[in-house]
Amino acid sequence: MGYFSSFSDFLQMGTHGLYVWLSYGIALVIFIYNIVSAYWLKRQFFINAKRRLRREQGTV
Amino acid sequence: MKIKMPRWFYQLASPKWFYEFTGVLLPWFSAAAILLLVTGSIWGLAFAPSDYQQGNSFRIIYIHVPSSILAQSCYMLMAVAGAIGLIWKMKIAHVVAGACAPIGASIAVMSLATGAIWGKPTWGAWWVWDARLTAMLVLLFLYIGVIALNSAFENRASADKATAILSLVGLVNIPIIKYSVEWWNTLHQPATFTVTEKPAMPPEMWMPLLVMVLGFYCFFAVVLMSRARIEVLQREKRSEWVKRVIVEY
After folding, report:
1. Which of B117, B233, B247 sits opposite A23 (nearest CB)?
2. Does pTM top 0.90 for this prediction?
3. Which of B96, B162, B167, B217 could lock B82 by a disulfide, CB 3.0 to 4.6 Å apart?
4. pLDDT tens across B74-110, in order?
5. What residue numbers bound the domain in which B125 lies?
6. Which of A3, A20, A42 is the closest to B230 by Cβ?
């Protein structure tokens, strides 16, 4: 099934394994960065906002 | 100059409506993004044929082309959103524009990095100063400029205006990127897909590419909406509906 005859062939990508996996690896890192940074911004906002509301109103 | 727009256009301008509507869309686009990206990647890596000249390094196309397309589309959206914000004084438009910049920058980095990595086995060079590569690098610098400018102002309205103007000034770079391979002798290959002719690529190769392009767009929609929603809450934090959202978090 698939283009490659074995999993080790798949990993090696002929002679181009380093290039292909480095590219997909960079893509994955950048995807993760985007997700994590959006999530972190959201968390920071709500933590600070709740703190501020508590200070202003005496409620959470 | 006041151009009459349909009702939904002005409804879109309500930050509360934007927050609620994007909240509904988010899970769907997230599911679509995951499905399309996983399917496209596996298809491109394991099932698509290799190129008879380039071998398996060809598979980088499934990251490089979608990221290049998205980096440009994101910039166009950013510039158009900036223009809408300037013309109709719509805060939401500026919010969207601001959210585009960091995402677009990261995707431009992805395009440049994967392009360089692909270039090494294909052309023997990590980088050449050909028209398309250079113009894409300029695009990254423009994104960085927009991000920097956006945070340089004390006054939010001034920041919005300056950012919009910079985005619009840089918009000329987009047709340069697109037509560079036609106007100049470049190392970067010309367009495989045109509106008028049959593609120079068989379906076994371009079908996973289409899936990846769609996946990248869905991913972009998810991250854009997420960032824009936070900015909306930030800007509207004095209003009652935002206070309710904060309390309920």
Report:
1. B117
2. yes
3. B167
4. 999 999 999 999 999 999 999 999 999 999 999 999 9
5. 67-194+203-236
6. A42
